[in-house]
Amino acid sequence: MSTSIEMIENVLVVGAGAMGRQIAMTAALAGYRTTVQDISADMLSTARTDLVSWTKERVVKGKLQQGDAQDALERLTWSTDVEHAAVTADFVIEAATERLPVKTEIFRTLGRCAPDHAILTTNSSTLGSSKVADVTGRPEKVCNMHFFNPALVMKCVEVVRHDRTSEDTVGTVLEFTRRLGKLPVLLSREIPGFIANRLMGAVQREALDLAAAGIATVEDIDTTARTALGHPMGPFELMDMIGLDVINFIAEATYADTQDDSDKPHPTVTALLAQGRQGRKSGAGFYDYAQSS
Ligand SMILES: NC(=O)c1ccc[n+]([C@@H]2O[C@H](COP(=O)([O-])OP(=O)(O)OC[C@H]3O[C@@H](n4cnc5c(N)ncnc54)[C@H](O)[C@@H]3O)[C@@H](O)[C@H]2O)c1
């Protein structure tokens, strides 16, 4: 059964964390009735409070009309029961914790409980949807839909098909992404890091190698990226912002997938982590932040 864009009225977002809540609000602002489901009632309550204050700020800044904000918040429903929430879902975006067993169980439940026409997507950054497609019983309706953080702001969404995702599904996911006010980019097959994280990884690797070889300082490499290439942040500033532990985790996950030595965690990052320097969040990474933050 093909799923046309017109069939999509009810959206289900699984996971109300940093990404899920903002993806849900994006769908609600675009006019979709949206259920946010999480196993944690506390997380749902935090997400709700967070979105209410986000909308208030936007209204105060004149970037959102009060009526539109209110309508969008009213389109949101909150639930801890995925089986119940899935029954009426036409389109699902899973944004739960980045662990394969967690996602596998969610997709198994979605396959069992969601209507046959429902498209099931995952926002995972590192797990290709082929890993959870079979347990749904409808692999042709499964793909990655990878938003960027913060999802309410960032325009790009990477749509990644696996080898059994149907043309119909791809077409509807691309159109749905546009209707959310986002810009979809399509990957014709699964590849670790998709597009954006691969580009970012290449720049970071080169920057780390240049600094490690003593060719230029961290500060000068960042200055070059900003002032010669027009990047909003230098690669070291960005790694400090993301967190060096996260950078290492991504490298480990990528290496596990590719077995390519150049994807291994960089020794400079590993050495900084051994000193407790995790980036901004710990007060120090490549730079020291203790006095400025
Ligand atoms: N944080 C980012 O910058 C970012 C960017 C793009 C994609 N992603 C992807 O988005 C997903 C979520 O990331 P996040 O940063 O929002 O994580 P998060 O830790 O902020 O939130 C995850 C949420 O999932 C919930 N959860 C755990 N198990 C669940 C289950 N079985 N059913 C329903 N909810 C469950 C948790 O209670 C939590 O609220 C991950 O797959 C990640 O790879 C993250």
Word description of this protein:
46% of the residues lie in helices and 13% in strands. The chain has helices spanning 18-29, 41-60, 66-75, 82-86, 100-113, 130-133, 167-179, 196-212, 218-227, 235-242, 244-258, 267-274; strands at residues 10-14, 33-37, 76-79, 91-94, 119-122, 142-147, 156-160, 183-187. An eight-stranded mixed beta sheet has the order 3-2-1-4-5-6-7-8, sandwiched between helices. The protein has two domains: 5-187, Rossmann fold, CATH 3.40.50.720; 196-282, N-(1-d-carboxylethyl)-l-norvaline Dehydrogenase, domain 2 (Orthogonal Bundle). β1, α1 (18-29) and β2 (33-37) form a beta-alpha-beta unit. By secondary structure, the chain is α/β, with parallel strands linked by helices. The structure holds nicotinamide-adenine-dinucleotide. Residues 14-20, 37-40, 43, 82, 95-98, 102, 106, 123-125, 146-149 line the site of nicotinamide-adenine-dinucleotide.
Give keywords:
12 helices, Rossmann fold, 2 domains, binds nicotinamide-adenine-dinucleotide, 293 residues, alpha/beta
Number of strands: 8
Could you name the ranges where pLDDT drops below 50 across 5 or more consecutive residues?
none
Order of helices and strands: EHEHHEHEHEHEEHEHHHHH
Termini gap: 54 Å
CATH fold assignment of the largest domain: Rossmann fold
